[in-house]
Amino acid sequence: MSLSRTEPAPSGAAAPSRARGRSGRRRIWTPSRAAVNTLLLVVSFYTFFPLVWTVFAGAKTAGAVQTGDVLSLRNFNIVGNLRLLWSFQDGIYGRWFLNSLLYAGVGAGVGALICVAAGYAFDKYEFPGKERLFGLVLLGVLVPSAATTLPLYLLAAKAGLVNTYFAVLIPSLVNPFGVYLARVFSAGYVPNETLEAGRIDGASELAMFVKLGLPMLRSGYTTILLFQFSAIWNGFFLALVMLTDQHLFPVSLGIYELNTSLSSEGPALLPVVMLGSVVAILPLVVIFISLQRFWRAGLTAGSVK
Amino acid sequence: MYRYGTETTVRLINRRASAVGAAPVTAGVTVRRGTGAALLLMAPFFAVFALAVLAPIGYAIYLSQFAQRASGLGFGGLHSVWVGLDNYRRVLTDSTYTSSYLHVLLYAVVAVPLVLGLSVVIALALDSAYAFGRRAAQLGLFVPHLVPGVIAALIWAYLYTPQVSPVVKALSSWHVHIEPLGPGFTYPSLINVVLWESLGYNIVIYYASLQAIPREMAEAAVVDGAGEWRTAWHIKLPLIRSAVALTAIFSAIGAMQLFAEPLLLSTAGSTGISQDWTPNLYAYTAAFTRNNDYGAAAAASIILAALAAGLSYVVTRFGKPWRQA
What we know:
- The complex is a heterodimer of chains A (about 300) and B (about 325).
- With about 300 residues, chain A is an all-alpha fold.
- Chain A is built from 15 helices and no strands.
- Chain A is globular.
- Chain B has about 325 residues and is mainly alpha-helical.
- In chain B, about 65% of the residues lie in helices and about 5% in strands.
- Chain B contains 14 helices and two strands, in the order ααββαααααααααααα.
- Chain B has helices at about 5-20, 35-65, 85-90, 95-125, 135-140, 150-160, 165-175, 185-210, 215-225, 230-240, 240-255, 260-265, 280-290, 295-320; strands spanning about 65-70, 80.
- In chain B, helix 3 crosses helix 14 (about 295-320).
- The longest helix of chain B has about 35 residues, at about 95-125.
């Protein structure tokens, strides 16, 4: 098994380790170097322009945004916009934000633990029908959740669960790919000898998972959690289908509904849409930058040979 | 790489794609005891899995065989009648439904090669000896992936609106007149949103696979006199082939699930996108706008699920890119 390291590589180690360490030498401008860096510059501009525009729009008056006066130094109304964002409709934006934190935090926190437990069990135990059961997990990866969301709604409607926190929270716990990933991580990070030693010492199987397996799988858990968190935070369709009470909305659905209402209600809340979008993006950016070694580990899991 | 509708699976699949070259899960040395503990550890997952995946599919298969009919004389209101496969026949002969697949097919034929091709080129550029600021670029280019799909589409919808957008204004001052929300720009506008969302994500995946190439290989090519460009084309590109193939497959499956982006562009006034423009939008509209036609919505969902699962099964089974390094 390839994942023999106990921790993902520290972020600095990945990039410059190759034979490209020419940065010490003086850089000579060649057509190739110019072409490559021009390309990267253009791509960076394309990536950041919409983001910069949104940050500016969130700091401007509604009129300025509407007349296209966004990328200038006039008509700023940052304090007013912030006040509006936190106060409109009795502070419903804050509620949406907390709802998103609840859905993504609980969904990913518990969901990743469920995945790690299942993945560990798939890796460490042998029982009849195991691979068939694992095939069921892989089927869950193959069937797009877009196709199961409407049926899920129909079922939830039958069970009277529509328009509750559970309607979004329970489906968010399911992450079949997380189970696959946890199995790979378990095979790489938890040596079978450790468990053998535990058994000789008379530990029960469950105690070994909690005391031996789980600590060794901590970084795998964080990786799965990180990706599940961002998937739930960015989720939209499930909430759109399940919720009509706006007190239960996550922030993405709230902004969508608010933006849709602008055409009939007028542009007074346009700054809320813009600033609200910026604020909704921030948590993920902060989390991903501070935990970047984990998402790199997630993206490259397995390609480490 | 795409984030439509329900993001979770798409991302899961994509992350699976990123685990390219992942050694297939192997049992290793395992111990034939503690089956009870194993089942106990798996129980929570399979409980929620049954509740949120298996049960809905089963219920949808059941529902898809019923239709609401007015009872005789119309006094008793609506009641459910078993209609067998009639809902499937109804949906499959509905030209709106079939053309929704045509839309995503046309979209995918352009978008997938475009997004992946650009990502490969940029990842190779980033991996070349010429690039400055690799780490910052890698981190920065990933940011659009952290923007919820709806919000990304919302931002672009404003950037497509003529009075608001600095882009449209700048272009028209150079006498290039575009109308991104007009009928002629449906596909380019939609593809641009998805390109913006997914470019950096794919770049990071490819860059990671490039970094995993043993440095001796690239060095050997250089010793043999190959320049950066030839090394990139003849050595590096073939080595990340399977990563590219997998992201292509899952992008195509992602295309089948398009939802949030076309929905938002359509509410923003894009004239070319109807309420049932993609299969997913069709099912949504059938369930919520068209008289709660749950039978048709269930049938449409089942067809979509079967097609997507079938496609990815065939590809992973026979394409085998997932087993290659």
